[in-house]
Amino acid sequence: MIKITLFKFMSILIKNRKQIAKIRIASRLAAEVLDIIKPYVLPGITTGQLDKICHTHIVQKQHAFSACLGYRGFPKSICVSVNDVVCHGIPNNKQVLQKGDIVNIDVTVLKNNYHGDTSTMFIVGQTSETGKKLCEVTKKSLYLALQLVKPGIRLQNLGKQIQKYVESQNFSIVREYCGHGIGKNFHEEPQILHYDAEDNGIILEPGMTFTIEPMVNAGEGNIHLMKDGWTVKTNDGSLSAQYEHTVVVTEQGCEILTWRKDELIPRIITH
Ligand code: MF3
Ligand code: CO
Ligand code: CO
Fold first, then answer.
1. CA-CA distance, 202 to 187, in Å (whole number)?
2. Ligand nearest to the CA of 210
3. Which ligand gives the minimal distance to the CA of 246?
4. CA dihedral in degrees (28, 31, 35, 37; nearest 10)?
5. Cβ of residue 68 lying under 6 Å from some atom of ligand 1
6. Is-above-0.90 flag for pTM?
7. What's the first-to-final CA gap in the chain, in angstroms?
8. Ligand 1 contact, 71 CB (< 6 A)
9. pLDDT (tens digit, 9 = 90+) per residue, 7-40?
10. Which of 8, 201, 244, 248 has its CA 20 to 30 A from that of 266?
């Protein structure tokens, strides 16, 4: 996710079939990393070990790169965000996962000059009712937005839908970070807001590729950046969850490029 900024010029790149095919490959690799790391997300493992396993898989098995490693100086290959960490948690060898933790792992793979970006939540052992509900609501908010994606709709509708649903469940949307266009660039236009904002006039078109990646807090939506310059935490110490998919707008709806087998939503959505 990227910090919300105001772009001076608007230019949304529409991708052709060949470009989409490359984003699809990178996206499948990113999704695969979440599949392979799943059995390791257990009490006692460090976030640094999770990073190492993912890094090795990306480089040695996928013959690809982590787009996170070195991105604006980010020191590791994945982001691991535990409990009250909203996003951009830096893996390290001191942080040991405990039973009850809720953990977001965010992976961006770069393959043949194209990116795929996805994240999901893992529950370590069992967690609180709030933790479980927060993960369910956050995932559902992403799914509700994905179900809207088709040519001709206003981009604004996605954020509206996410906010409406999340707030109906008494949770809060984080507003400072947003989804993004993706392709040759890790982050490009448009910004995908996860809340209702002033209409920027953007209408979805086939060939647009972007992420949707709502961050949802169990308590208030306010957040702060830690001294390490990356880790973002909730101000009130409440739990935070996030799910992210990379999608392409198709003629009839969308294709979820980072779709995994365990999802409760079809890979291709048609209307
Ligand atoms: N993967 C994040 C996103 O969804 C960005 C992480 S940037 C990093 O956009 F440098 F923290 F890795
Ligand atoms: Co992203
Ligand atoms: Co991401």
1. 17
2. 2
3. 2
4. 120
5. yes
6. yes
7. 28
8. yes
9. 556 689 999 999 999 999 999 999 999 999 999 9
10. 201
